[in-house]
Structure formats: C-alpha cells, structure tokens
Amino acid sequence: MAVFWKPIAGRLLLTVSLTLLGWGVEGQGDRQGKKLVSGDVTVYLGQGRDIWRPIIHTTSNVSEISCIKSSFQLRTFDPEGAIFYGDTKNGEDWFVLALKEGMPLMQISIAGSLVSVMGGPQLNDGKWHTLEVSNQDDFVILDVDGSKGLVVGMGGPAKQTEDSHAGVLRLALGGILIDKGKMMIQFDHKMDGCVRKGSWLDLRVPWEVEVEEFLPCYQDILPGSYFPGTGFAVFNTSVFPVKEYEGIKIELHGDFSKMHGTILSIKAPGQEMMLTLTANNNTQEVNLSYGSQKISMKATFNKLVITFLDELLQVLKKQEKLQDLQVVSVKNSGFSSTWGNGRLAIGGLLGEGEDNVGSQFLAGCLDMIQIQDRDLDLDFAVKHPSISSHSCPA
Q1: Signal peptide span per the entry (predicted)?
Q2: Domain range for residue 255?
Q3: Residue whose C-alpha is closest to residue 11's, from 149, 139, 203, 105
C-alpha cells in the first residue's frame, strides 16, 4: 500500500496497526450493536471467534496520524499465531505481523508485490518481550528487547505519488481481514498469548469487539494446556496412524492430584464408549474404564502412559523415578476399528451426535499431551474457546 512506505505519514501502516493492541477491554458503549473498547490494558489474543476473524478491529483516517513509533509487550508459549493486521484500499494493500516457529514473521503486500521476512529471537518462552516498530528511511524496523529483530526494506513503492495523508486504514488484532490464501507464508492463526503496556500512536478511535466476552491474561503462566472446566477439545482418531506391532500410545503429564473431571475419552459414532479417564479431586483418585475393565489409581503420579495392543491394555504410572505398570488383558478389544473412525476428546466425555456434546469437563492443567510420541497441539482440534492450548495459570 503506497501510504505505508512514504515518509512520515506514509510509512505508518505497521505502527498504526500496533495501535490496535493498545486498546483494552473496558466497554465504551455500542456502535450499531457492536461493543466498543479502548484503553491501554492487557489483551488476551486467544479469544474464541470464527476462523481467521479478528478479536477487535477498527478504521481510521490516515490524516489523523501524528506519531510514527509504537511499542508493546508480548508473552506466549505458543510458537505460531497472528498478532495484528492492517490494510488500505479495502484489503488491496496489507500488512501482517505473526509468530511462526516462535519467531516474528512480517508479511507485506504493496501494489501487487509480496514481501515476507521471518527471523529474530525466539519469543515463545513464556516471558514478556518488548517489541518496538519504527520507520527509518525506506525501512520498517522491528526491535525486540532493545535489539534489532527484523528489518524490511521497501524502496520501490515509496516512489508512488499518491497522497500519503489520504485514505483509510483498517486495523485488526488476533486475525486478518483478507483471504488467508493471499499470504506468501501460511500459518495457523490462533495465538495463545497476551499483549500489554502498549505505547501507541495518538489515535483515540474506539475498536469494535468480535467476541462475546474477554478472557483473562493470568499474572503467571506455565507451559501446558489449561482446561477451566467449561469444555473440551476433539480430534478424529484417524489422523493418528497406528504403528504396526506397536499399537497406540497416549502419554499425559501433569499433577493428577489437582485435576477434576474427564481427562480423556475415546468413542466411535454409534458404538459404546471405548475408554474414559477421569480424575476426582475429592477422593484423590484417577479412574480408567476400558470396555468392562476398570482401573482405579491413587493420584500420586505426574506421568501416565496408556498403550493399546491387540489384546492388552498397558497403563504405566510414574512419579519422578518411581514407576508402576499395570496390564489388563482384553479379548477381542476391537480398538483398531474404533480408532480408525472414532473421536478422541481431551477434557470431556464424548456424546452422540454431530456436535459431540459432552459433559464432566476437566478442570486442571495437562503439562504435556502426546499421541504416538508426538506432542498434541490443541490449536488443531475442534475445541471450546475457554481452553488455552499452550499455557496454564501458575
């Protein structure tokens, strides 16, 4: 977009977009039925919403911009997701800042040309990092914690003669307003992270809210997947291949004595429940049901490994260096056919129907979830918006 890379007002799309992150979660009224927010407060980026739609968005005239530098703090354990977006010409020219593989990723479309740059320090370590964006000559510079992070040079479009003080900017937080296929580098948009302490441009326009309510940013966090007891995450089991002669292995890490509700359930449509794993914080027990077989365990462990074999179910419990292996013999278990077209729910009990409406939701944190020795990312599940995929309150 031509206005982005012209001197002073023209190079402002990146820093104008950052203003979006500075508006807070205090309602300011209503604009055609939309809740409006403003203020310099902490914002959680992992709000539940339609795919790729932003959490909040607004428009502003370029002529109202008088500042060319913005900064904010970002904290996340999530390696991938959208932070903010801005465009002009109704999306013809646009800019996106995101994380991919834990590093900053900037993508720019200007006058039909695409530019992307990715690199800098890893930002998904759960610590607060200060990001500052500024314009110097023909370059857009992203500083991270006082050091150069990314530099983008766009000299060509700056030669255009359009009025850099005219036009409208659309700004969005936590999502984008264009077709994701237009981006040069694809990424998953969901970001389990927070921004705070924004020092933004001098704009004072309100922002429209796209979510029903704002979820909190916890003061201290640890890596893991957090279930507040209001929903679960569902996967199709067919996406996890069965290893020949090795069966299926599910590994869960966490303080099981602090969990309550259904940790795991597996079921195929039209069939009986294959497996349920539940925790009872009152009795300090963890119970596993596999068909007619039942196992009751004291919740004194922090690692649980469940392995399905043709006619055996192995359950390994481990607390630090101590471990206890239980083996249940199951004749004609049929786990292979169930796994081939079934569903796996983390944090709830699967029900019947297309919506898989369940109950007995989990309240607690799973430090790690692995299926077939691979970490499970809940961002790729159909999940309740209250679930945090990569962080737990400490």
Answers
A1: 1-27
A2: 223-393
A3: 139
Count of domains forming the chain: 2
Q: Which residues contact 252 (CB under 8 A, 6 or more apart)?
A: 263, 264, 303, 304, 305, 306, 366, 368, 369, 370
User: For 317-336, what is the mean pLDDT?
Assistant: 73
Q: Residue 291 to residues 15, 271, 273, 317, 324: CA-CA distances in angstroms? A: 58, 11, 7, 20, 22
Same domain, 228 and 189: no
Shared-domain flag, residues 209 and 164? yes
Residue that finishes a domain, picked among 157, 187, 217: 217
3-class SS of residue 388:
strand
What distance, in Å, lies between the first and last C-alpha atoms of the chain? 43
Whichever domain contains 333, its CATH number is 2.60.120.200
Are both 233 and 186 inside the same structural domain?
A: no
Q: Taking 90 as the threshold, does the pLDDT of residue 365 lie above it?
A: yes
3-state secondary structure of 326: strand
Q: Single out the residue in 189, 217, 245 at which a domain terminates.
A: 217
Q: Which among 219, 224, 215, 226 is positioned nearest to 55, based on CA atoms?
A: 215
| DSSP of 101-165 | TTEEEEEEEETTEEEEEE-SS---SSS-EEEEEEEETTEEEEEETTEEEEEEE--SGGG--S-TT
* Residues 262 and 377 grouped into a single domain: yes
At 47, list the tokens. Answer: 């709000």
The DSSP call for residue 216 is P
Burial code (b: 16+ CB inside 10 Å, e: under 16) for 77-89 equals bbbbbbbbbbbbe
Give tens-digit pLDDT for 190-240. 899 998 877 766 777 778 888 888 888 899 999 999 999 999 999 999 888
Question: Are 294 and 385 contained in the same domain?
Answer: yes
Helix-, strand-, coil-residue percentages of the chain, each rounded to 5: 10, 45, 40
d(CA 280, CA 298): 10
pTM: 0.83
Same domain for 288 and 162? no
Residues 68 and 120 occupy one common structural domain: yes
